[in-house]
From TrEMBL:
It is a multi-pass membrane protein. It is found in: Cell membrane. Pfam families: Oxidored_q2. It comes from the Bacteria. The chain crosses the membrane at residues 6-26, 38-56, 76-98. Belongs to the CPA3 antiporters (TC 2.A.63) subunit C family. It comes from Fusibacter paucivorans. This is Cation:proton antiporter subunit C.
Length: 120
């Protein structure tokens, strides 16, 4: 139980990923699927940022002298997550644009109704 309490960020990331994955699986609405994908993205960002954090170390911002190289947190995971956030926002915009085009073409954003209209 103590391990679970100490790793609450990891547990939260896994639960969020599961929620997003279940939304993707269980809903036919494209907007809900996009929301599920965003929840999954956010859980991955939470996981990697919590992995990159080391208690007792400082951000690599030099103010008032340089510490030993072991005194700083590695900035690469944070930079990668910022890049991931930009990619996730771009993909969300692209998926929303495709959803708008599907709505204009079929008049619905429900996947089962689109399949019925297409005859599949």
């Amino acid at each position: 139980m103590q391990t679970l309490i100490n790793n609450y960020m990891f547990v939260g990331a896994v639960i969020m990923f599961g929620i997003g994955f279940m939304i993707l699986l269980l809903h036919n609405n494209l907007i809900k699927k996009i929301i599920g994908m965003n929840i999954m993205d956010t859980s991955i960002f939470l996981l990697f940022v919590s992995l990159g954090y080391i208690d007792g170390k400082e951000a690599p911002i030099i103010v008032g002298g340089v510490l030993h190289h072991n005194g700083y947190v590695n900035p690469i995971p944070t930079g990668l997550m910022l890049t991931g956030i930009v990619v996730a926002v771009s993909m969300t915009a692209f998926m929303l644009a495709l959803t708008i085009k599907l709505y204009e073409l079929y008049g619905t954003i429900e996947l089962d109704e689109i399949q019925n209209i297409r005859g599949g």
